[in-house]
Amino acid sequence: QAPLVESGGGLVQAGGSLRLSCVASETIFSLTVGWFRQAPGKQREFVARITGGGSTFYAGSVKGRFTIARDNAKNTVYLQMNDLKPDDTGVYYCLNEMAPNWGKGTLVTVSS
Fold it and tell me: Which of 41, 48, 96, 102 has the smallest count of CB within 10 Å of its CB?
């Protein structure tokens, strides 16, 4: 399956917000979709996940600040990121966890 396509990254000051989008070329109605990130020099890590049933899961470092949501009509999963911190800097990827195929990601840079 084609990878999901991420967008919405950019440069933001600490305390700011960004909303990332993850668009699929086909229906995401029943998919479990995850957001992951990779900071410079570090391994890729889990950020958030939403199941086909709408259950959500978050890494401890982002809980309370990030929100994952889906719009099945638009085949899109969003990651709303608030109160961003410099440690949130990295390339963000979304993934269809039922048929993993990494995309190019979108870069988020948080300045202090």
Answer: 41
Residue type, 92: Y
Q: How far is CA 65 from the centre of its chain?
A: 13
Structure tokens at 2: 């084609």
Element (H, E) at 93: strand 90-96
Give 1's pLDDT tier (boundaries 50, 70, 90): confident
The CA-atom distances, in angstroms, between 62 and each of 26, 43, 74, 78, 95 are: 28, 17, 25, 15, 18
* pLDDT tens per residue across span 24-39: 988 887 889 999 999 9
Closest to 8 (Cα-Cα) out of 17, 22, 20, 26: 20
Average pLDDT over residues 50-65: 96
